[in-house]
Amino acid sequence: MKIFTLLFTLAFMAFSVAPKVATVNTSESTITWTAKKVTGQHHGKVPITAATLDYQNGRILGGTFEMDMTSLTVEDLTDAGMNKKLTDHLKSDDFFSVEKHNKSNFKITEAKTSNGKDYQLTGDLTIKNITKPVTFPVAVSVNGGNIVATGKLTFDRTHYDIKFRSGSYFENLADKLIYDDVELDVKLVASE
C-alpha cells in the first residue's frame, strides 16, 4: 500500500504544472486615483514600478503590483501652481508621507472566478507600511499571449493613518470634508 501511495504521489507531482508568471508591462499599465470631497473631486496617476500576474490554464492565481508614490500626479488641475500645491500636499505627512514611505503595493492572496473572465480578487494593500485586506472585482481578458486585467479597488484611507479632513475623525468640517474612500482604477497589461 505504501508503494502505491508513493507511486500515486510521484505521478501526481509529475503532471501538476506550476503556475506561470506573466510580466506586466509597466509603461502600458496604469493606476488612476480618485478622491472625493464635499465640493468636488480630484484625480491623477500613480506609476506602477513592478508587477507580475501568476496564471495557470488561462486563469489568474496571484500576482503583485508596486506603486511609486514619489511620482504621484494630479491630472485635473491645469493651473501649475495649484497642481504643485496639491501634489506636494498629497505627498506630505497629512496624506501619504512619501518621504518616509515611497512605495505602496498590492499582493493577491485569493482569486475567485467562475468563468475565467470575471474575478473577485482579495489581497493585501500596503500603504505607509500599513497592510489591510481588500477585495475588488476585476475583468480579465486573454488574447493570444496578452493578458489585460482591469478593476476598481476602493480603500478607506483612514485605515492607513490618512485622517486629514476625515469626517470619521473630525467634526464641523462642513465643505472642507474629504471623503474616506479613495478609488484606484487599475489596468495591468501583461504578456505570457
From TrEMBL:
UniProt entry tagged with the keyword Signal: yes
Domain Lipid/polyisoprenoid-binding YceI-like: start-end pairs: 21-191
Taxonomy of the source species: Bacteria, Pseudomonadati, Bacteroidota, Cytophagia, Cytophagales
Superkingdom as given in the UniProt entry: Bacteria
InterPro entries in the cross-refs: Lipid/polyisoprenoid-bd_YceI, TTHA0802/YceI-like_sf
UniProt keyword list: Signal
Annotated protein name in UniProt: Polyisoprenoid-binding protein YceI
SMART domains associated with the record: YceI
Signal peptide residue numbers: 1-22
